[in-house]
Request: fold
Amino acid sequence: MNEYDQYDALGLAQLVRTKQVTPSELLSAAMQRAEKAQAELNCFSALFPEMAQEAIDDGLPDGPFKGVPFAVKDLGVAIKGAPLTNGSKAFKDNRPDYDGVLATRYREAGLSLFGQTTTPEFGLTTTTESQLFGQTRNPWDTSRTSGGSSGGASASVAAGVIPVAHASDGGGSIRIPAACTGLFGMKPSRGRTPTGPLTTEGWNGQSVNHVVSRSVRDSAALLDLTHGPETGSRYVAPPPEASFLSALDNDPRPLKIALWTTAPNGTQPDADAQAGIDATRKLLEDLGHTVVEAGPQIDGEALGKGIMMTISAAMAMIMEIRGEMLGRKLDPDDMEPVTARFVEFGNTIPMAELMKANQASITAGIVFDHFMDVGGFDLTLSPTLSRKPEKLGVLSLNPTDFDAYGEAVTTFAPWCAVFNQIGSPAMSVPLHWTDDNLPLGMMFGAKCGQERLLYALAGQLERAAPWTHRRPPVWVG
Reply:
């Protein structure tokens, strides 16, 4: 199908509905491109076209995305009979015998699940490199990262394999890959999308699921089809007043946007990121919005310590349970060096520190909302990344210098994790390319439950400064 890469996912689904193409033909087109991308970018951890074809032969549900090829990140989302390694040597033989709640909702939407994309071990860093699968490369520059932890998803979409792919975000892992590869990425509000059936939240609610995409409308339409409570949900994000997709129908009213350029840990944008901020500010003002330099005074030290406590405790629990399943205690050789340090630390954290970590997130949320309310702000604007995509190896979980790794990873995208900790939605929009033709996304954040406002602005920006025509040097379409 020569025209495959001219369509977003909703466009491909329309071709299926009008019988201009069959789901099998779309699967074949995606597989041809996936094999090319895998050879150049190493963006898939598994491909299972036979399973996808079997689902097609059995009859796909008549959902809005019927017949569209789709890949799920190899982290946390179970597909019956497919591997689920979480990028970890300790889970290399893990193969669930059930579909996760999110996979079920994707199937009900009509998507054709044919593969899994790469991730670093348990999504613990902002690049996609692992001892299990190796390095995933950026189609804009194969010496650089495609972001993490959804870097396999971003590389596959940016290179033209598929128009949209599942991703997840516990500290920026949808927005960072989107920013690194010229895609749109929305992190929903806490409690918006499912993670079951075995748990209803990740990292104490900080990690959420959604997608990276080339078009805004694919992201909005898929959130319409996947959001909502699941069995055992302890909390649910505020219901939208109308569909997320309908938010794209009209430009938003003139907005007051806080330009937040000093991250809570003190990081500021470098020259490349500042150029993107300056251009984005001008675009927003040309569209009738007001941009004011201001930012919430959030305790970056408390948040940084809090996320370290939360992740370390989570990894200690996960590896303990995995060891019990394997019938032996896992040791450092079973995991990446940074992961092993998380586990070691997680096994020594006093219980009071976990409560302090949770309170730091609660306090940050209060400070953020107070800042927005007192200032009359609708949204915040920051660079998604403080600098252009890093070279491969710099952010790896197998560093040669742990101190250098710590400095690099905490300053790469320091505005992102704030929105995970406070539970609010945020999106990365591909509005800037550096002088050496590397994407560097811009991030907008909102108060909890306000995805529709973000989507409305994203739709306006997409019309004013379109990006889907841009093609990276590695393009498999």
The chain has one domain: 4-464. The mean pLDDT is 98. Residues 300-326 form the longest helix (27 residues). The two ends are 10 Å apart (CA to CA).
